[in-house]
Amino acid sequence: MLKKRLIFTLLYNSGSFSLSRNFTLQMAGGVSWLKRNYNFQKVAYFIDELIILDVSRDKRNAESFCDAIRTVAEHCFVPISAGGGVTNISYAKSLMKAGADKIVVNSALFHDQRFVKELVREYGSQCVVASLDIMRKTENSFEIYTKNGNCVQEGSCSELISQAVSLGVGELYVNSMNQDGTGQGFDLGIVQFLFSQSPVPVIIAGGAGHSLHLIEGLRDPCVDAVATANLFNFVGDGLERARNEITASGIEIAYWENINHSRLRNR
Question: pTM (2 decimals)?
Answer without folding.
Answer: 0.94
